[in-house]
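Marked as duplicate of an earlier ticket. Keeping the data here for the record.
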Amino acid sequence: MTQHIERDLQRFKHIVKGKVRENLRKYITHGEMLGRKGRETVSIPVPNIDIPHFRHGKKGSGGTGQGEGEIGQSLGPGQPEDGTGDAGSEKGQHIREVEVTLEELASMLGAELELPNIIPKGVDALTSDKDRYNSIRLTGPDSLRHFKRTFKQALKRQIATGQYNRESPIVVPTRDDARYKSWTTVQKPQANAAILYLMDVSGSMGEEQKEIVRTEAFWIDTWLRHQYRGVQKRYIVHDVVAYEVDEETFYRVRESGGTRISSAYEKARLIVERDFPVADWNIYLFQFSDGDNWGDDNRACRDALVEHLLPICNLFCYGQVESPYGTGDYLRELRQLQEYWENLSLSLIENQQGIYQSIKEFLGKGK
């Protein structure tokens, strides 16, 4: 009975996750689950799934195919049209909270966007210890008891001692029959990734633009954590001057000054030199702006990118979030560099719906 219940439960979970996959594009472009993230799982709202059941007609209405009728005649009471009718007392559609692990979510994202797996640059210089269950021993805690091996041992003992009865095949393991899983510790290469987020927080970047950045960053994090064992993040905000901040400040702070993008590039260079040796880390920079930059600062930005940042990055991604106050000129400047640097990825994000294509443009190179 327990096996049947477990089988049905797994089948139900498979159906539910299929619903999540079907609607993944909607979840990508809307941030409705971002506040629901746990440590390893995300709770996603999906429409409730109805179990098939019989619906009985009214008493005395006759059976199937009985009575007079005409072509096109309705077979049952319909719903009022155009929203007319009295207030109802029936229950509405229910929403089910489905827990999906971040690993499963990342796999769905990769399949939906056809993202290639990332090949880390250089040699995996860091290692981590990993316990692998690959042997059996005679002692251990009950939580590691190997039920199949224990049963087999008990069966062999009863057959060998003549206690086994084919007519009544009851096998009761004793303490001496118990077998337990055992492990060995192995060292595995550990590729690490450092993600630096840069964002313009001048007055032209409003709440709508920041929500787009927040949603896209969630999916970027999810995919890169799926590809790397160790991920570290840093956040930089800037107007004319750049500051390193925590994640909450990154999405909430707003300034009213001008914009000097080169200050953010200089801060990013210093953070990489301080925290992330290039030989040991895969470096990712994601910059978001509305495309405004002060005066002749574009030249300083080009120099910083070509001399310091692009040579050390797996990917440098620039997402230009459209704003009614931004000029959008900076994207045109970066397009002049794109033909010379394969790790430079550019994206124009017009609104929430543009997040889907932007993620594909950023992560579709497999770097």
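See parent ticket for discussion. The radius of gyration is 30 Å.
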